[in-house]
């Protein structure tokens, strides 16, 4: 009987610590993907709310880490000037051939033993970014806030990172060479919950480059 009770306790703890699928809440008004290019002659900023994704995480066992995938539709990026948006899609990102960018989260460092509700945590993430036919490892600065309730947990996430266009073979035509910076700074904000259906995301089979 004692062994049976011990087994029940073990199974209960394992179940409560099991990772859940947290899916980006598309109805959340704060969902935003934005980029900044601080070129020599011009500052360019753009944004989109077209972000889908999900990651696996156990709020009751945060040190187990997290993994997941995000996808943004590059065709929906807006900079405030229609002609510039068209040139960005056609001449730089070539969205007819590469309409999406993906981020694959493989590791998170700095997670505590337990998460306090509504307490923001500064973390570091590691993964791969897929853009313009190129897959490269990147580091990401993360801020994670545990919200919601025990029955319906929610996670508010902010991610910041930088990309270099040459690393992803994104060309800058001569006319924009001094306007579009080589380094692009990005920030992604979203809310994820366990009550949303999993999105259908398939990572491209692109070779990894360093």
Question: Would you give an account of this structure?
Answer:
The chain has helices at about 1-15, 80-95; strands at about 20-25, 30-40, 45-50, 50-55, 65-75, 100-110, 120-130, 135-150, 155-165, 185-195. By secondary structure, it is mainly β. The chain has one domain: Beta Barrel (Lipocalin), CATH 2.40.128.110. The longest helix is centred in the first third of the chain and has 16 residues, at about 1-15.
From the structure above, extract its key features:
mainly beta, eight-stranded antiparallel barrel, 44% strand
Summarize the biggest pleated sheet.
8 strands, antiparallel, barrel
CATH topology: Lipocalin
Number of domains: 1
Q: Mean pLDDT across all residues, rounded? A: 86
Low-confidence stretches: 1-17
Helix content: 10-25%
At CATH level 2, the architecture is Beta Barrel
> Distance between termini?
56 Å
The fraction of residues in strands falls at 35-45%
CATH-level-4 superfamily name:
Lipid/polyisoprenoid-binding, YceI-like
Shape descriptor reads elongated
CATH class: Mainly Beta
Radius of gyration: 20 Å
Strand order of the largest sheet: 1-4-5-6-7-8-9-10
Tell me how many strands there are: 10
Q: What string, H for helix and E for strand, traces the elements in order?
A: HEEEEEHEEEEE
Provide a count of the helices: 2
How is the quaternary structure best described?
Answer: single chain
- The helix/strand class is mainly beta
